[in-house]
Amino acid sequence: MQIAVGGCLAQKDRGEIVEKAPWVDVVFGTHNLDVLPALLDRARHNAEAQVEIEESLQVFPSTLPSRRDAIASGWVSISVGCNNTCTFCIVPSLRGKERDRRPGEILAEVEALVAQGVVEVTLLGQNVNSYGVEFGDRGAFARLLRACGEIEGLERVRFTSPHPAAFTDDVIDAMAETPNVMPSLHMPLQSGSDAVLRAMRRSYRSAKFLGILDRVRERMPDAAITTDIIVGFPGETEEDFLETLRVVEASRFASAFTFQYSPRPGTPAFDLEPLPKAVVQERFERLHALQERVSLAENEAQVGRSVELLVLDSAGKEAGGRKDAATARLSGRSPDNRLVHFAVPDGAERPRPGDLVTVDVTRGAPHYLIADSGIDGGMYAVRRTRAGDAWDAVQSGEHDHSHGGCGDSCGTGAPTGGPVGLGMPSLRRVDA
Ligand code: SF4
Question: Which pLDDT belongs to residue 64?
Answer without folding.
Answer: 60
